[in-house]
Amino acid sequence: MKCRRILAGIAIASALASAAYGHERELVIGLSMARTGTFVSVANANEIAVDMAVDEINRAGGVNGSAIRLVKFDTAGDPKQSVLAVEQFARDNGALAIVGPFSSSEARVAFSAGERLGIVQMSMSSSAPGVAAPFKYAFRNTVDEGLVIEMVLKAMRAKNLSMGTAAIAYATDDAVSKAVGTTVLPEALIKVEVPVGGFVDFPYKAFDMSAQVSKLAQLKPDIVGVGAPPEAMINLAKEMKRQGVSARLFAGTTVGDPDLPVRFGDAGEGTIIGSPFYSDLNDAVRAFARSFATRAEAAKIGRTVPNQTDISSYDIVYLYAEAMKRAGVTGEPSKIAAERTAVRDELRKMKDYPALGGKITFRENGDAIKPIYVLEAKGGHWTLFDQRTAD
């Protein structure tokens, strides 16, 4: 009798464990998203892109005969919430890997939590230099912002654009923008031997930039590097046009809004940026954009055109699916720690994976080696100026 009670207890415990981790034939992936909060204008559709990828993979038979199940956590871009997301996915949901977090400020703390818990995370947007480097379980499906801006400048030089002198404009109250303005842009300009004549700074929500642009007018630069979110760059461009400052604007991924050329009007004509996504790249990307638009319209999120973080999120799901396939993961609770590590190891071994945004390999520091599309704002659209891959 006592033996039967013990066996019954074991069975109940096993059933509870299975319930906690979901159906035994499901492979759980967490989505740490910034659907609300500071980054909502660029991050609010990442969920749509991830849902698309999961649906496509499951319709095609899943991974190793198992369906992917997605669990979600809206961090609102808050680093503290990003840590809670990792802990929930790892401890409560039995996730094998996590898509996200979104920002570099979140990644700095969430990656540390994931390292302690032994679960892979891959950011779709973080590009501040070196954020993933200290960790074994941290990846970024992005390119270091310094490399992106260096590629932009090299493309501009190769096309013989006027770039004798530069100025730098940046937001002071956003950590990434400030890092770009004070460190990344100066270092990139030194590498291409363009002298920096001066700096202007502003709060990232600033509307009146007349004083900053007056200073730019005095500096008379050929080019102005920008470290700021899209909204601040728009205000800067419009004030430059009003004051007759004709310097060309350039930036990295922080301003990668697909609607930016339209929002600029003619004020930002000729602006050049680096992006891991070009919406008119090929038929596969155009098909993705059409499917995305249908879902985004139904969701009423305020835009229907995918941006670079949307396609990055989509590709992360496929990267995880491929790593799980190669590792032969089962999602069994008793194997969860080993299978999380196996996913990590397969990602680190992956070479030239054919993702939608281009072939992807991961550096030792966890960052992606992937194509960067140098785009120019022309006639209300982003046009392909050049295509490059960092060494």
UniProtKB/TrEMBL annotation:
Residues 28-380 form the Leucine-binding protein domain. GO terms for biological process: amino acid transport. Residues 1-19 form the signal peptide. The keyword tRNA processing does not apply. Transmembrane segments: none annotated. It holds the Pfam family Peripla_BP_6. Gene3D superfamilies: 3.40.50.2300. Keywords: Amino-acid transport, Signal, Transport. It comes from the Bacteria. Belongs to the leucine-binding protein family. This is Branched-chain amino acid ABC transporter substrate-binding protein. It comes from Bradyrhizobium japonicum.
